[in-house]
């Protein structure tokens, strides 16, 4: 555990909680892509199956349970409790264009051809692109609520911090994982355009709106 | 370096 890893985890946790609280407090999931949230629930489910097979630490187990629990709670709020506020017409990204290629890639490029290992790889690849339906939705409506941009910033920052964590681990532990690194770079790059808008607009007190 | 899984990460 190094400082980048810990702050990355906390940034990820902050993102998840911000989104849950935003929906709960406003009693609305307007502007939130339910499809991205289903993909994140799928990511956590396929990655954390090792909860049943191995124990790493109390921290590890607790965080996994919190992430999974929050992911399913978010999906429940969007598709059940506050379904009337869900903006399905603008959430029109075709997720099969992500899930099918990612599934194929995880079968082809993995560390070990075993069910758990393929599912872990699938979760890493899927996480890298799971935010696309949300970014697509924002580009379609041309705007995002400020609280939604805080969520996206924390979510993007998390993987960027993990990149520094992996650099740290390579130098101090001689340890790297090419699958995670390549997927993590892709994931972080997808946020770059958003990071730019966040710094130039939201942090200066303006609402995030895209030119028509 | 070793190319192995980051199973201790989240």
UniProtKB/TrEMBL annotation, chain A:
Keywords for the protein's UniProt record, in alphabetical order? Cytoplasmic vesicle, Endoplasmic reticulum, ER-Golgi transport, Membrane, Protein transport, Receptor, Transmembrane, Transmembrane helix, Transport
What does the record list as GO biological process? Answer: protein retention in ER lumen; protein transport; vesicle-mediated transport
Q: Which GO terms describe its cellular component?
A: COPI-coated vesicle membrane; endoplasmic reticulum membrane; Golgi membrane
GO MF annotations, alphabetized: ER retention sequence binding
Key word Cell membrane present: no
Q: Which domain of life is it from?
A: Eukaryota
Q: Which family does it belong to?
A: Belongs to the ERD2 family.
Any idea what this protein is called?
ER lumen protein-retaining receptor
In its UniProt entry, the species of origin is given as: Pundamilia nyererei
The lineage, from the top, is:
Eukaryota, Metazoa, Chordata, Craniata, Vertebrata
Gene assigned in the entry: LOC102215457
